[in-house]
Design a protein that fits this description.
Blueprint (H helix, E strand, L loop, with lengths): L1 E6 L4 E3 L7 E7 L2 E7 L2 E8 L4 E2 L1 H6 L6 E4 L3 E7 H10 L1 H29 L3 H8 L6 E5 L2 H7 L4 E3 L4 E5 L14 E3 L12 E6 L2 E6 L6 E3 L2 E3 L7 E3 L3 E7 L7 E6 L1
Parallel strand pairs: 11-12
Antiparallel strand pairs: 1-8, 2-7, 3-6, 3-8, 4-5, 4-7, 9-10, 9-19, 11-13, 13-14, 14-17, 15-16, 15-18, 18-19
Helix pairs in contact: 2-3, 3-4
Length: 258
């Protein structure tokens, strides 16, 4: 049902597009998660000891969405699909963790549908504020010169949540009932998804949630998205670093809570 295996730095554990026929549990070391976009290979984040890789693909039986490469000497547990399902059935904490992830994704969809409905009814502001408590003072600004070229150098004051950040649509793309609150131009090959991440008030905290984007979101060096262990994270008081579209993306921002 499972097999212990060691990898040297640079070894490939599986490739984007491969069948999702097993799950990887990192026992020691670090593994880089990479996405191939055209001729580019983008580092989405790094998985560490105790984290699963490829579990969502096994559950929904879809091909691998990313390539995983050993970033150091790596020991992993390779678990067959059936073995993983049996482990989930026998481990309530693991089952709860997976349910929370799937629930967060469903909530992302529900929030987006509520946002679109409010916009189509011509009452977007009331719809957002009715669903969310009053926001603290939140300042959003570019953290790199490249990001400043797209959104300007002046901080943006966020006054209502959820606040969605994403890519502007291009000619020929299907129309969207409502675009993101902050629509950023992004030339091909895209780093941003049309609805990439949102800032929302949940569970008594201001959180960033990746909206199932193609290349994920990194918040205070923690990668979020469907290729990682979590989809959302609470922001801390003061400054927070957000990178949309993988390490090295020009779309880097600072979000300050006060």
């Amino acid at each position: 049902m499972y097999l212990l295996k060691r990898f040297k730095p640079g070894d490939i554990l599986f490739r984007q597009g491969d069948p999702s026929d097993h799950v990887v549990l990192v026992r020691s070391g670090r593994a880089d998660v990479l996405r191939e976009v055209g001729d580019d290979c983008i580092l989405l984040g790094t998985a560490k000891e105790g984290e699963f890789l490829g579990e969502m693909g096994v559950l929904d039986e879809r091909p691998r969405s990313a390539t995983v490469r050993a970033a150091s000497t790596l020991e992993v547990e390779l678990i067959s699909r059936q073995g993983f399902l049996e482990r989930v059935s026998a481990d309530p904490q693991l089952a709860q963790k997976l349910l929370v992830r799937m629930s967060a994704r469903l909530r992302d969809v529900e929030d987006m549908l509520a946002k679109l409905h409010a916009a189509s009814a011509g009452d977007k502001e009331r719809g957002r504020t009715a669903a969310q408590p009053a926001a603290p003072v939140i300042r959003f600004e570019a953290a790199t010169y490249a990001a400043m070229l797209y959104i300007g150098s002046e901080p943006i004051q966020i006054t209502a949540l959820p606040y969605v950040v994403g890519r502007g649509s291009e000619i020929g793309e299907p129309p969207m009932p409502a675009g993101p609150d902050l629509e950023i131009p992004d030339p091909r090959p895209y780093r941003l998804s049309r609805h990439h991440f949102c800032i929302a008030s949940e569970d008594g905290a201001v959180q960033v949630r990746d909206l199932n984007s193609e290349l994920g979101t990194i918040v205070n060096e923690v990668p979020l998205g469907h290729d990682f262990a979590q989809d959302r994270i609470a922001l801390r008081h003061g400054e927070n670093a957000i990178v949309a579209g993988g390490w090295g993306s020009p779309y880097a921002f600072t979000v300050t809570l006060s």
